[in-house]
Design brief:
With 530 residues, this protein is of the alpha+beta class. The chain has helices at 6-12, 15-18, 29-35, 85-95, 107-111, 181-193, 220-228, 238-251, 276-288, 305-314, 325-334, 336-340, 464-479, 490-497, 503-521; strands at residues 51-52, 58-59, 68-69, 75-79, 128-136, 144-152, 163-170, 200-206, 210-217, 258-265, 292-297, 319-321, 342-353, 358-364, 384-387, 391-400, 428-437, 445-452.
């Protein structure tokens, strides 16, 4: 499908912690960590290896996105991200009384965990609506916040295409914890409860060896009984399991339906291939043949977030971290159609800023989703997918022309960043382009939309939904140690979020209190802990 891919590159950087592990049972866990330095990731010089925090968990290095001068780099391009794993994982740390590792916090996944009041698309000719608005930045009176929101069309339970699902369950020794295999069983049972008569589910497990526990069936009782009988023990042979899961899915392939593998694991497994490219080729081939891959992360201590995110990205699926029965219900019951049914694939966003109105900008989050400008129109470059009802939010912090920015003035006149006077007449602060493909298509479609320069005149702070999205963005960036947030504190973030009525938003407010308490008691540590 593609010559180059951000997903392929992303997976290369997690090979150190995943591709050559000898096993994941508790007795051998420390020995495996010591052996990681000899993995094939060392041959990938252009990618960084995942960073293990003091607990042994692995996260991909994730530097905060830089500031850009419009005169130097007027165009910002990125792939959409509908994963929510980072938010649930951050919540797990905070509920345990710890601040998360900075690399565990992906701000775009924090923002996109929540739903906002974006309108539905007018018709399905375009699978999603596009919303833009601007507000005064709460932490910097010299800048504005530009929000771009996408909302996919909803799909009712009755209209969802038939699904051919394979549960690939890690039953190795490392899964023998209350927050791992027992929670996996409860989570996947929710999917069984939401099956339609046309749907099929098969179950494959892997530990010392891989095997088919349940041939594809529509009988929810059989599915739940098979899940209930699973037990953990032994070392891991994840590669055999992945291959067997794909074989099982292919044997029951539904043309025009949903064909997906849901892998449930702590991510600490041996994928059974001799180098990371073999894994990439396997997942890419099956994806291009119509079998996608969703990863569900569980547990703590040896959790491999880097591998879970990268496998889902490469497999055109999504990554969720399940830290509770409530989260399982949210992902696998309430949002099941979004999790399973893709309405647009390879979705890319490109924003071109007009130097007559905007001098500097930065994109909050999406660091590992950045694309080169030329990749936007290249249909061979892979990007993110959007499921039914999914929402995507991106927030830029921008410096209006003439306002004080982050970048210093330059000494030599010839190097001075100047706007062209002719651009001022068009009344557009920016121009937004979106590219996407329909689920069965190979050629992208284009949506274009100008953003009026008059929006920069606003002095109003964020209100309502925009205020809450801004609060979540600030929360994520503060956990990451963003130095451009000024002196905004967790109490300020709570005030910005405002009074909330829904469970998940109320929980967010509570998490800011836990982070504030953790900040007050945290001592400096290594390994990227705030």
């Amino acid at each position: 499908m593609k010559a180059t891919s951000i997903r392929t590159k992303a997976l290369a950087c997690v090979a150190t912690g995943a591709l050559l592990l000898a096993g994941c049972d508790k007795a051998r866990h420390n020995a495996n960590n010591n052996a990681e330095s000899t993995s094939l990731a060392e041959s990938s010089s252009d990618m960084a290896s995942p960073v293990a925090d003091p607990s042994g968990e692995k996260y991909k290095p994730n530097d905060i996105s830089p500031v850009h001068a419009v005169a130097d780099a007027p165009v910002s391009t990125f792939a959409v991200d509908v994963d929510t794993g980072a938010y649930a994982n951050v919540r797990r740390f905070l509920n345990a009384g710890q601040l998360p590792p900075k690399d565990a916090v992906r701000t775009e996944e924090m923002i996109n965990y929540f739903r906002y009041d974006y309108p539905l698309p007018a018709d399905r000719a375009a699978p999603f609506s596009v919303t833009t608005d601007v507000a005064q930045t709460p932490w910097n009176h010299d800048t504005k916040l530009l929000r771009i929101g996408l909302r996919g069309y909803d799909l009712s339970y009755a209209k969802r295409p038939p699904a051919n699902l394979v549960f690939l369950v890690d039953v190795s020794g490392s899964m023998d914890e209350p927050d791992k295999l027992p929670l996996v069983k409860a989570a996947l049972s929710l999917v069984a409860d939401n099956l339609q008569p046309r749907d099929k589910v098969g179950i494959v497990v892997y530990a010392g060896a891989a095997g088919v526990v349940l041939e594809p069936t529509s009988d929810a009782t059989q599915i739940k009984a098979a899940l209930d009988q699973l037990s953990a023990g032994g070392s891991t042979a994840g590669g055999e399991g992945i291959k067997l899961a794909y074989d099982t899915a292919r044997a029951s392939f539904i043309k025009g339906g949903i064909n997906r593998i849901l892998i449930a694991t702590d991510g600490d497994f041996n994928v059974g291939v001799t180098d990371q490219r073999q894994l990439e080729q396997l997942i890419e081939k099956e994806r291009d043949d119509g079998i996608t891959l969703t990863t569900l992360g569980f547990g703590q201590g040896n959790f491999n977030d880097a591998l879970m995110e990268s496998m889902a990205d490469l497999g055109n699926g999504n990554y969720a971290y399940i830290d509770s029965a409530m989260e399982a219900r949210k992902v696998l019951s309430e949002e099941l159609s979004s999790t399973l049914f893709t309405i647009a694939k390879d979705v890319k966003v490109q924003v071109e800023f007009n130097p007559a109105y905007v001098s500097q900008y930065r994109l909050i989050g999406y660091e590992n989703r950045a694309l080169a400008e030329q990749d936007f129109a290249n249909d061979k470059v892979d990007a993110g997918d959007i499921g039914a009802g999914h929402q995507v939010t991106a927030i830029y912090e921008v410096v209006p022309a003439g306002s004080k920015g982050w970048l210093p003035d330059r000494h030599f006149t010839a190097n001075t960043r100047r706007a062209l006077a002719g651009d001022r007449q068009n009344g557009e602060m920016a121009y937004v382009r979106l590219r996407y493909k329909l689920p069965e298509g190979d050629t992208s479609r284009l949506i274009e939309r100008p953003i009026a320069a008059t929006l920069l005149n606003t002095q109003a702070p964020p209100q309502g939904d925009m205020a809450f999205a801004t609060a979540v963005a600030a929360f994520g960036q503060k956990l990451r140690g963003d130095t451009r947030l000024g002196d905004i504190g967790y109490a300020d973030i709570r005030r910005l979020a405002g009074s909330q009525s829904g469970y998940w938003r109320q929980e967010f407010v509570k998490l800011t209190e836990l982070a504030e308490a953790g900040q007050a008691h945290a001592a400096p540590q290594g390994g990227g802990i705030d």
